[in-house]
Structures are given as C-alpha cells and as structure tokens.
Amino acid sequence: MELIEKLLHKKVVYQGRYIRTEEQTVQLPDGTKAVREIVSPPDAVGILPVDSDETVYLVRQYRPAITRVTTEIPAGISEANELPMETARRECAEEIGKEPKRLDFLFTYYHSVGFSTGKIHVFLGRDLVVNPKIHAEQGEFLEVTTLPFADLYRQGIAGEIVDSKTLLALLWYQQLFRLPTGI
Q1: Mean pLDDT of the chain
Q2: Is 1 part of a structural domain of the chain?
Q3: What pLDDT digit, counting tens, does each position of 86-109 carry?
Q4: Domain assignment of residue 15, yes or no
Q5: Are residues 35 and 53 in the same domain?
Q6: 25 in Cβ contact with 10 (< 8 Å)
Q7: What phi and psi values does residue 90 have, to the nearest 5 degrees?
Q8: Are residue 112 and residue 72 in the same domain, yes or no?
Q9: Are residues 128 and 157 in the same domain?
C-alpha cells in the first residue's frame, strides 16, 4: 500500500519569531481528505559536554511550555547561515562558559514527527576550555550544574530527566563509550 499523503493545499495560520504553523489539506492513500496541522520551528542543536573524568555540564532552566524547571544538556537554535557545529560551539560557550576543543557529531533526530518539522543535531563536546568572553544571551536565565555521567544516566533511567535531547544523548554516550565492545 502507498503510504504517502498528497498535499492539496496549505495555508499559514501562525507566523511568530520562532515558529510557523500551517494547516495542510491532504489526500490520504485511500482517496479521502484530511487536515494536518504542522508546526515548523527552526533547527536546533544539543551538546553533551563531558570532561576527562566524565563530569557532564548541564543547565537548569524554567520551561514555560511544561511549567517546570528542567535539567538539560546545553542547546540552542541555529542562526541564519550557521552550521550546526558552529551553533553547538557557540551555545556550549554561552550556556556553560566552556568551549569544546573537540566536538563530535552524534546524531540528528526529529523531535515530534507527528506534527513538527523540527530537528535537533546532537554533538559530544570534549576537551572543554573556559571562555570568559562569552555569556548567556540577554533574557536567558539558567543555572549551570555538573553531575558525574553515571549519576546523570541513573537519573535519566529513573525518569527524573524529561528532556528528549538529553535522554537520547545519554543513551548514545552510554552505548558508544561505556558499554563493552560488541553490545
């Protein structure tokens, strides 16, 4: 069976500073019509900054969409014409005051495939050096915290970490760098 939906019509129902929402009329594989609501945020990055003793640098910040403070890896939105790796370096320095000398791409994922075009590129930041010249953006209130990777991983498995990019970064790091080869 053909699973592709044919786009018949679309209209922008909201255009903000960061997101655009479209209402799309589509033809389903069986010939019937349906309406889809699609949210298009800008692409973003996340960085798992880990130092040589496996201390992870994190940020705590209030997230109004879920009305709670979360613990997350540093992250941010790419600026116009900025490559994801450049965004990752900038955001890491802005949010935790340390810049990774070594930055390795881990993965890219779409964070809400049912209704959003948004994707996040996730990197591993190592060989962290202090960068006192760069500071958090105006209007961004966050607290830098550190945890040993093992403790953070346990928090993730226990459901204490609720941010998807952070959870996925933890799982990738655990799989690539901490499990015995061949698993």
Answers
A1: 93
A2: no
A3: 999 999 999 999 999 999 999 999
A4: yes
A5: no
A6: yes
A7: -65, -50
A8: yes
A9: yes
Asked if residue 103 lies in contact with residue 88, where contact means CB atoms within 8 angstroms, the answer is yes
Separation between Cα atoms, residue 168 and residue 122, nearest integer Å: 9
Please name the residues in contact with 69: beta carbons below 8 A apart, sequence gap of 6 or more.
60, 61, 62, 63
Residues 51 and 36 in one domain: no
Which residues have CB under 8 Å from 158's CB, separation 6+? none
Our count of domains for the chain comes to: 2
Domain that residue 26 falls in: 6-40
CA distance 92 to 134: 10
Which of 163, 131, 137 lies closest to 48, judged by CA? Answer: 163
Q: What is the mean pLDDT of residues 20-26?
A: 97
Domain-embedded: residue 92? yes
**pTM metric for this prediction:** 0.91
Residues 23 and 97 in one domain: no
Question: With contact defined as beta carbons under 8 Å apart, do 139 and 133 qualify?
Answer: no
Residue 136 lies in a domain: yes
Question: Pick from 31, 33, 38: which is nearest to 11 by CA?
Answer: 38
Bridge partners (DSSP) of residue 146 are: 57
Closest Cα partner for 104 from 129, 91, 85? Answer: 85
Please state, in angstroms and rounded to a whole number, the distance separating the CA atoms of residues 179 and 54. 14
Q: Are 104 and 124 in contact (CB under 8 A)?
A: yes
